[in-house]
Amino acid sequence: MAASPPPRTFHVKSFGCQMNVYDGERMAELLTARGMTAASERAEADLVVLNTCHIRERATEKVYSDIGRIVKEGQRKDGAAPVIAVAGCVAQAEGAEIMARAPSVRVVVGPQSYHRLPEMVAQAAAGGRAMETDMPAEAKFAALPGRRKVGASAFLTVQEGCDKFCTYCVVPYTRGAELSRPYADLVREAHQLVEGGACEITLLGQNVNAWHGENGRGRPAGLAALMDELALIPELARIRYTTSHPADMDEALIAAHGSNRKLMPFFHLPVQSGSDRVLKAMNRSHTVESYLRLLERVRAVRPDIALSGDFIVGFPGETEAEFEDTLRLIEAVGYAQAFSFMYSARPGTPAAAMDGQVPAAVMEERLQRLQAALQRSSLAFNQASIGKRCTVLVERKGRRDGQWLGKSPWLQSVHFSGEAALGELVEVDLIDAGPNSLSGQLATQQIT
Ligand code: SAH
Ligand code: SF4
Ligand code: F3S
User: Fold this and answer.
1) If phi over 0 gives left and psi between -120 and 50 gives alpha, with beta otherwise, what is residue 397?
2) Whose CA is nearest to atom 6 of ligand 3?
3) Quick check: CB of 366 below 6 Å from ligand 1?
4) For ligand 2, is residue 17 a contact (CB within 6 Å)?
5) pLDDT digits (tens, 9 = 90+) for 92-134
6) What are the structural domains of the chain?
7) Which of 342, 373, 384, 424 has its CA 20 to 30 A from that of 176?
8) Model-level pTM greater than 0.85?
9) Whole-angstrom Cα distance, residue 436 to residue 448?
10) How far away, in angstroms, is 386 Cα from ligand 2 center?
11) Are 164 and 209 in contact (CB under 8 A)?
């Protein structure tokens, strides 16, 4: 491939989880710090970064179809083709295969190496190809620029990787071992985010509650202690964290839900299945009973806590009766929100080799019933808010003039009309509810 002028504009497209969104933002900041500018559209970018997800088969397929589409759109007005870089979890898992299958991809970079993106892009522009999928510990964050302008609600990755090895999941292989970023670095980044405009920070990790470190006085600190420190930042109004694993919900974190007044009354605690036999086969280290007991303890300190979960239907060997146990669990818990998926066999994971793979048609039918139950649950949760007044963080403009979209403390999406501005916390009277959002009216008397 001939050398081309170094790319000046870039476009980053992130798939998958919030940690990938965070990584995508950091890549954009890194490229900006090196003098590049964000293109308003992908078709105008000299460099296209596909920041990919490997969690399910369909997510992975998207990468190849996206590459195909970019190549087909092909030559831009000036005759140059964009440099295509594949980042994220597919790059980590299938880097060599991508290089072989897609000659138009010039750069492959894994989630632990993207601090090297600018030099790799330069190499590609010089006519070469570059691939980096090592998993060096920690080098990445130190090499990234500081945070500047961010939205009202910002992400902060505190922990990466996973040691849990659920039998269906690729994350331990694509993201590597659990690694906690140092306390002081996180406090510094949180300050930067707040100075850059954030009034809400969501702490992120594949197992965010496995985060541990040492506080400024050299004492061991867990996520609760970190959140207490962040709560001292005056302009920071809201703290959230995701995704947590039931096995890592320690006493201090449960207590924080009652004592940290900036910690929002919402948390995401995936359960996956309501059958103990399936949970065991999944290598989840909890039972239905221990999960429910954990919820009781959190509700004891924070009675209004709202919950979301993740569910998988059709894990190998799942029977109709075991699936119905999951439906019963949903009834018992009352989820405010949830994510649910058909099991997807991932190459190299233990579950992919298990007997009793469930036919697609059965999975589809179960997913429909599960989602109907979850919709009923979230509708009931949202309807219980009608007639109440709640604080909304304004995050986006709505479709029509004077309409806004924001989030309640319980992470409900709230549409409302009235005089407001992005990043403001306003009081909204809630009037109507659907399973995915609420609508309301700006309260006439605002608290400040
Ligand atoms: N670490 C987090 C989330 C990881 S992935 C956790 O443990 O909660 C997000 C969700 O994707 C998982 O909770 C699970 O519900 C789903 N998932 C992971 N692997 C999957 C697979 N092979 N097939 C279907 N869903 C899967
Ligand atoms: Fe995957 Fe399980 Fe780790 Fe979550 S805890 S990332 S589901 S292996
Ligand atoms: Fe996907 Fe990787 Fe996140 S596989 S869900 S982008 S950790």
Assistant:
1) beta
2) 53
3) no
4) no
5) 999 999 999 999 999 999 999 999 999 999 999 898 999 999 8
6) 9-139 (3.40.50.12160), 147-384 (3.80.30.20), 389-442 (2.40.50.140)
7) 342
8) yes
9) 28
10) 36
11) no
